[in-house]
Amino acid sequence: MTATYVRDVDAAAFQRDVVERSKEVPVVVDFWAAWCGPCKILGPILERLAGEHNGGFELAKVDVDSNQTLAGQFGVQGIPTVVGFRDGRPVSRFTGALPEHNVRQWLGGIIPSEADLLVAMAGDRLDEGDLAALIAYLRALPPLPDEPK
Predict the structure, then answer these.
(1) What is the C-alpha separation between 121 and 11, in angstroms, rounded?
(2) Annotated catalytic residue, options 9, 39, 76, 111
(3) Given 36, 49, 62, 122, which residue is catalytic?
(4) How many angstroms separate the CA atoms of 120 and 100, rounded?
(5) 6-108: which CATH topology?
(6) Which of 15, 99, 121, 146 has the most CB atoms within 10 Å of its CB?
(7) Annotation marks residue 98 as catalytic
(8) Whether the Cβ atoms of residue 147 and residue 94 lie closer than 8 Å to each other
(9) How confident is the model at residue 112 (pLDDT cuts 50, 70, 90)?
(10) pLDDT tens sequence across 16-72
(11) Rounded to an integer, what distance in angstroms lies between the CA atom of residue 63 and that of residue 130?
């Protein structure tokens, strides 16, 4: 396991480790169980991708057998169920063991792009009144695609 970016989370730690943490970095919650065959396929994919993204998101693993109330709060009816959190709230989910390329595609909607990060940093510079840094961040943004004709 990539311990830095993967952790087991229970109901007592969920607010801190998922909801609050997702205000700083996206958190992907894997609702799983030890007896679940598809969970044994998806879990290692998620763990590997968490390490590969090197902090681009964190993976919180919730054992549904030990945390039935928490699973019920999020409407988990089948496992594995994966829920992506950003800014303190769930923003996307899927159920089942998807192939890795589909998981990567799903993560693309959860993890901020380089442009998202540059805009956020530019906003911070605006808040600080540092217009020169603001302009530098905005100039670093990739060009917008041409409008269709």
Answers:
(1) 33
(2) 39
(3) 36
(4) 29
(5) Glutaredoxin (3.40.30)
(6) 121
(7) no
(8) no
(9) confident
(10) 999 999 999 999 999 999 999 999 999 999 999 999 988 889 999 999 999 999 999
(11) 46
